[in-house]
Design brief:
The structure is a homotrimer. Chain A is built from 12 helices and 9 strands. The first copy, chain A, is α/β, with parallel strands linked by helices. A 5-stranded parallel beta sheet of chain A has the order 7-6-5-8-9, with helices on one face. In chain A, helix 2 packs across helix 12, helix 6 crosses helix 7 and helix 6 crosses helix 12. Chain A starts with 16 loop residues before the first helix and ends with a helix. Chains in contact: A-B, A-C, B-C.
Amino acid sequence: MAGFPLNHVIEAQQFDRALLAEVFSTADQMRADLNAAQRVYADALRGRIMASLFYEPSTRTRFSFESAMARLGGRILTTENAKEFSSAAKGESLTDSTRIMNGYADIIVMRHHEAGSAQAAAAVSEVPIINAGDGAGQHPTQALLDLYTIRDTLGGIDNVRIAMVGDLKYGRTVRSLAYLLAKYDKVTIHFIAPAVCAMMEDIKDYLDRHHTEWHEEGDLTKVLPEVDCVYMTRIQRERFIVPEEYDEAVGKYILTREKANRMPKDAIIMHPLPRVDEIPPEVDDDPRAHYFQQAKNGLFIRMALLYLLLST
Amino acid sequence: MAGFPLNHVIEAQQFDRALLAEVFSTADQMRADLNAAQRVYADALRGRIMASLFYEPSTRTRFSFESAMARLGGRILTTENAKEFSSAAKGESLTDSTRIMNGYADIIVMRHHEAGSAQAAAAVSEVPIINAGDGAGQHPTQALLDLYTIRDTLGGIDNVRIAMVGDLKYGRTVRSLAYLLAKYDKVTIHFIAPAVCAMMEDIKDYLDRHHTEWHEEGDLTKVLPEVDCVYMTRIQRERFIVPEEYDEAVGKYILTREKANRMPKDAIIMHPLPRVDEIPPEVDDDPRAHYFQQAKNGLFIRMALLYLLLST
Amino acid sequence: MAGFPLNHVIEAQQFDRALLAEVFSTADQMRADLNAAQRVYADALRGRIMASLFYEPSTRTRFSFESAMARLGGRILTTENAKEFSSAAKGESLTDSTRIMNGYADIIVMRHHEAGSAQAAAAVSEVPIINAGDGAGQHPTQALLDLYTIRDTLGGIDNVRIAMVGDLKYGRTVRSLAYLLAKYDKVTIHFIAPAVCAMMEDIKDYLDRHHTEWHEEGDLTKVLPEVDCVYMTRIQRERFIVPEEYDEAVGKYILTREKANRMPKDAIIMHPLPRVDEIPPEVDDDPRAHYFQQAKNGLFIRMALLYLLLST
């Protein structure tokens, strides 16, 4: 292998189409390997140590990375609440903490409550940093697994028509996904959100510059028959000043079974999870429901990244 | 091996005598293996992942399971406070969390604060769930290790005479143990508890239906010479409305060295631990004291269950 | 190997010069092994289990031990907040907890908030206990790695001239280091601290009895050209009753780049970390700055101790 060009994974912008293709094909390999009678990668990272440095708890993301490392034969050091439990509480800088962790681990997966933290850590780190979410900032592995799920279930990304639904203003997953989709040809995006959660101008401008078609639409029902993918997100109550507006918004953007049935037969429903009410459990049996597989795809993507960063 | 008949371990009721015998003989093998110069099972679960999903912290139970998994060569994902740290805090359902964990682990050990949780998780889980305690509900591996300890030290379970002492009303260990003992022949149980902590009618009825002899007794001292096993439990202050009653109850049910000496020479003292005052440290040296060995037996039982659920 | 003479590592006083030399040369081997193309010790502790029992969180110390265990091929059970999460919260004694952990782990690394805890645990433990800090008590592995850093960078410990700066009264690292330095020949120690944080009489008396030269000095700048090592520590605001005194003290004991330049070219700057303001980041590039290497040396020392305690 020619060597993976990235030292760290900090933001979705680091990935161009060629690199995405490499990550996705490696993820395919990892998935096949996990199902193989005789695994090839079971000890690929034997003797290597990953530190999960979570300044903000997120059991799911942490377990996804740790499972990926374990499936590759590596070891794990873990903290689920470093903000409270580590020297950060004594006023230590993140760069000092990173330098010290460099002595103990071969790769650091970092979740932090402040945007820009992963980049700041990477600037001083001698070992790879993977950003597992930094506050309002980026969560690039989520964006990668979302795109991987689309490619995997729809057979490709060019020509995809997608509806993004819910909290598009603060939702970092939909922002990153829109960013990555613009790298592909003839993608159409429908933004469907309450006014207070509308997609921000920066992304719309970006899509315009990349000639990616987008529409803004208030009516979910109307768009459903025309898309290959509905990407649902959770609307958080605290975004709304007037409680009645929240209740109205939430009701409008629930994807019931009846609404799901308006989608094309081979379309897919995605959600970064956790969900609350926006997809009722009755939809889980629908063959279009792909959100649990989407979560599982995170394992393959993270195995691929750990492998590419540590082995090449 | 013909294959272990259980997919999940949720409650003591799943085990009949034949199945108990299989678990116990596997536990014997595990114990022998740990003492062997050349271990046979050291890599039995190599490449398998166990997730410790503890919604309620319990370092001891968690370490016991994790040690069991490590002794079999498996890997561990762990969270000690999922209630606070996981998506449960964002309103995610337990079944969603379980489905997602299915993507990351080959077996899930779950501790939860609500009775029925383990069953609810098992209903949707594609991988085995082991209930490590669900609130006022069950804690089946504790019941198994208790019974294993009796079998191991007294040479069998038929004909055993046992005194259960302390909080019999809320103590889930004594309830489960009474349940399992009824599967054996000519067992005699003495319930010794303050009135507010008396064994509940459902268990007494159950014992009657299974022709298991039981007695209710206020006086610990009187029963001691007549039993093969005293199973002590902690009485919690908060059960008592009148503080004076608590003080009186606690004093009456302390197993001092002097009282222990009234027991037959080859009888055993058990306790699920942690203890507070009900067994003073002076008793620890008594050859009848088996509570630390009992705790250690949990390792063998959990190794056996992990092995049987994942290898057969 | 003749066998390591210690069963537990509880306090710096257990180590004489011969034993220190053995630990340090084992640490050298571990360091060389980690850099070797083909590692010899990668599976040295395969099949062994270390329990991190931290009653007080300390991510750094915990990760350092856990990385050491992982680098030797061993397994880890971990809790970062046992005080809150374990049976200690239910009133269980530390000795009971220790006895139970004996069933699950081959070695216990314990951090506790009360001085004397590690000794109390060791008194009942059948497996080695390593004290990873017990309140105002000891933190012997920190003292060992400090001394190892001096030996490693200055080529030996005899004849070393060292300035200890900052909180010498409550700082357990400087106290332990002073203790160990007295075992070597012709060491000179300069204590440089605000009056409220001055080194206590017990250590001064001890140094006198061992004929170790020491001086008390208010002026950091004056001492700098005459020492081989400056050991900085953090001054905690809460030690000062009068806030103005804190501000004055802190300002006086900051090692700026300008001050560092007054040190001999081959002198070294140490700090147990975390630091706050006492060493500004501008000093990090100075070749004399050794505090990050010092932290990393903790890995080699802990690998050495785990190996010596478990393999010999």
